[in-house]
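Structure first, sequence second, as always.
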C-alpha cells in the first residue's frame, strides 16, 4: 500500500474540514467529524494544527483570500473597464468557497478577531488594481477623486454593486443579468451620478406593517414587564448562542418563567424563536431616523450617513445581522424583512434632503446605494477593528461625495 505523505494528509484534513465548516459552521463542526471524514486518527490533526481554531484559521485563509484580478486595460472606455472589473469581483465573491467561507467568518469573528481583520484587508487588496487605475485616470486629468481615498472608492463601487449584506440576508446572489446591471449602474453612479427621474422612485415596503404586532399572545398570563423581559433575555441568548446553542432551560433559570408557559404560548422553540426575532425586526424597522438636512445637499447627506453608520455599528444591531445571517435558511422571510426594514428607514430622511435641495425624491437604487455606502457594507461584520471619530467623519464625508460629486470630468 502506497504511503500517504504528510503534506497529502494535511491537505486531506483541510479539504474535509472545509466541507464541514461550510455545511455546519464553526460550532457545528467537531474535530472528531473531521478525523472520521479524512480517515485519520484525531491525533493526526494535532500533528498539523494546535487546536480547532488554528484549523479553522487555516481553512478560511486558504479559501477566502481574494486574489487581485488582472490589471485594468488603459485602451478601453472608462465605464466599460470599471464595470467589467466590478462584475468579475462579484462573480469571484459569489462563487464557492469564497461566499461560504465569508459567511462562516462573519459568524465566527468574535473568536478570531485577528483573522477577521486580516481577511478584511485581504478583500480590500482585491480592489487594488482598480485603485491603481483610478489614480492613473486622475493623473491624466480624466477624473477627480475629490480628495477621497482611491482604495475606498474602488471597494465602495463594488459594495454598491453587491448591495452590502443583501446576499447573506436570505436573498442570495442575483443572476448574471442582474449582476451585470448592478455593476454598470454602480459605475455610472460614481462616474456620472444618477438621474433619478429615469429610475423608479423609492417606495417603502412597509415591512413592519406586514409583521405581527409583537404583543403578548392572548393566552399569555405574564404581566407586560415580565413578558418584555422574557423576550429581551431570549433575544440576547439567541444572539450569543444562535438557535441551536440557545438553551430554554437557561432562559427559564434567568427569567423565572416556566418552560410550560413558553411552550403553551409558542408551541416549540422554533415558534418562540420566530416570535422573538419578528418582534425585533418590527421594532428596528420602525425606529425613525432624523432628516439630518444640514447646510447644503452634501452636508445633509454626510450627517445622515454618520447617523446611519453609528446606528449600524452598535453591538445590538450587528448581533441581529449575525443571527439572521446564521439562521437565514430557517427564517429567510425575516432575514429579508430585516434588510428591507433598514432600507425603509432611510427613505423618509433621504427623501426630505433630496426634495429640499434637488426638488425631487431619490430613486430606489440611490436609496439602497446610500445605505450600503453609509454602513460600509459588511465591514463592521467582518472586522473587529473599531473606527475612530475622525475615521467615521471621513467615511461619512466620502459617502456624501460619492452620492453628489461625479468623478468623471466634463470636457
Amino acid at each position: 500500500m502506497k504511503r500517504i505523505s504528510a503534506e497529502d494528509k494535511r491537505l486531506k484534513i483541510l479539504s474535509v474540514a472545509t466541507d464541514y465548516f461550510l455545511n455546519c459552521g464553526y460550532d457545528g463542526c467537531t474535530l472528531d467529524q473531521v478525523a472520521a471524514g479524512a480517515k485519520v486518527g484525531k491525533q493526526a490533526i494535532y500533528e498539523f494544527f494546535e487546536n480547532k481554531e488554528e484549523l479553522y484559521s487555516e481553512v478560511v485563509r486558504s479559501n477566502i483570500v481574494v486574489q487581485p484580478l488582472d490589471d485594468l486595460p488603459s485602451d478601453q472606455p472608462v465605464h466599460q473597464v470599471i464595470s467589467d472589473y466590478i462584475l468579475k469581483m462579484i462573480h469571484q465573491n459569489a462563487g464557492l468557497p469564497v461566499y461560504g467561507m465569508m459567511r462562516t467568518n462573519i459568524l465566527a469573528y468574535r473568536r478570531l478577531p485577528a483573522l477577521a481583520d486580516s481577511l478584511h484587508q485581504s478583500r480590500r487588496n482585491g480592489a487594488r488594481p482598480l485603485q491603481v487605475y483610478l489614480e492613473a485616470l486622475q493623473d491624466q486629468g480624466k477624473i477627480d477623486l475629490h480628495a477621497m481615498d482611491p482604495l475606498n472608492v474602488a471597494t465602495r463601487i463594488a459594495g454598491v454593486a453587491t448591495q452590502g449584506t443583501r446576499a447573506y440576508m436570505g436573498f442570495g446572489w442575483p443572476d448574471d443579468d442582474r449582476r451585470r446591471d448592478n455593476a454598470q449602474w454602480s459605475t455610472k453612479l460614481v462616474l456620472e451620478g444618477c438621474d433619478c427621474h429615469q429610475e423608479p422612485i423609492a417606495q417603502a415596503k412597509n415591512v413592519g406593517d406586514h409583521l405581527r404586532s409583537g404583543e403578548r399572545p392572548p393566552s399569555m398570563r405574564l404581566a407586560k414587564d415580565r413578558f418584555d423581559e422574557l423576550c429581551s433575555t431570549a433575544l440576547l441568548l439567541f444572539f450569543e448562542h444562535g438557535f441551536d446553542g440557545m438553551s430554554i432551560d437557561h432562559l427559564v433559570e434567568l427569567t423565572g418563567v416556566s418552560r410550560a408557559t413558553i411552550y403553551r404560548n409558542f408551541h416549540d422553540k422554533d415558534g418562540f424563536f420566530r416570535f422573538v426575532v419578528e418582534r425585533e425586526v418590527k421594532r428596528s424597522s420602525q425606529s425613525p431616523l432624523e432628516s439630518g438636512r444640514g447646510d447644503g445637499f452634501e452636508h445633509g447627506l454626510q450627517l445622515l450617513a454618520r447617523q446611519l453608520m453609528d446606528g449600524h455599528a452598535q453591538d445590538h444591531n450587528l448581533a441581529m445581522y449575525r443571527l439572521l445571517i446564521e439562521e437565514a435558511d430557517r427564517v429567510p422571510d425575516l432575514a429579508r424583512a430585516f434588510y428591507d426594514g433598514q432600507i425603509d428607514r432611510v427613505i423618509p430622511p433621504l427623501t426630505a434632503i433630496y426634495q429640499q435641495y434637488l426638488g425631487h425624491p431619490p430613486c430606489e437604487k440611490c436609496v439602497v446605494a446610500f445605505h450600503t455606502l453609509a454602513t460600509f457594507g459588511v465591514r463592521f461584520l467582518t472586522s473587529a477593528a473599531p473606527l475612530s471619530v475622525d475615521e467615521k467623519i471621513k467615511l461619512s464625508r466620502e459617502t456624501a461625495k460619492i452620492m453628489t460629486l461625479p468623478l468623471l470630468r466634463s470636457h
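Margin note: The mean pLDDT is 90.
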